[in-house]
Specification:
Helix content is about 35%, strand content about 25%. By secondary structure, the chain is of the alpha/beta class. It has one domain: 2-Layer Sandwich (Nucleotidyltransferase, domain 5), CATH 3.30.420.10. It has a six-stranded mixed sheet with strand order 1-6-5-2-3-4, sandwiched between helices. Strand 2 and strand 3 form a beta hairpin. The protein is globular, with a radius of gyration of 17 Å.
């Protein structure tokens, strides 16, 4: 009975025929050299440590570039069905926090809440005078979904991200975004 009541409240829309979701027109088809993903192999302590050292070095290097923005996203999802998830992001430029936000994401999964945080942070980041975005997340799958406009839960977020990044990348060849995975338990 509880499921029937919940199904009546679902409002997410899907667009299987959206122009940005057709083969050859997707963001990854148009700008493959502008997007990169850096997963962390958490099953190997040595690989994980090496990955985190690379990320530390990258953030240190980014703190001296006025054209690089470091974005850290995270979410808090409480298993209770009566509580909403919270999406948050912090944006850093030249070693200083330049913006942050926290927003209610609704009663959703961690993956969808993280996708929402990525959407909001990319919208803010692409409006700034930068050329490189380093986005750090503990759910790299959400980052992959963010640049995939095909039909999936959260497609509206992905379409918004793809639109913002398409305009951002169109400004020049050097404009890019690097998605880095950082495990939640990392220090």
């Amino acid at each position: 009975m509880d499921t029937e009541v919940s199904l009546l409240n679902l409002t997410e829309c899907f667009d299987p025929l959206h122009a940005k979701a057709t083969p050859g027109c997707k963001l990854l088809d148009s700008f493959p050299d502008h997007i990169s993903f850096h997963p962390c192999n958490c099953s190997s302590l040595r690989d994980c440590k090496s990955h985190l050292q690379s990320l530390d070095y990258l953030c240190l290097e980014a703190s001296s570039s006025p054209f690089t923005l470091v974005v850290v996203t995270d979410t808090s999802v409480i298993p209770s069905r009566h509580m909403q998830a919270v999406s948050a992001a912090y944006l850093w430029n030249l070693g200083q926090q330049v913006s942050s936000f926290k927003a209610l994401a609704g009663r959703t999964t961690a993956l969808d809440a993280e996708l929402f945080a990525i959407r909001l942070s990319i919208a803010k980041a692409t409006s700034m005078a930068i050329e490189c975005i380093i986005l750090i997340t503990d759910l790299l799958e959400s980052a992959r979904q963010a640049v995939d406009p095909s039909v999936h839960p959260g497609q509206a977020h992905s379409l918004a991200v793809c639109s913002a990044l398409r305009l951002f990348f169109s400004q020049g060849y050097g404009y890019r975004i690097d998605f880095w995975n950082c495990p939640s338990r990392a220090e």
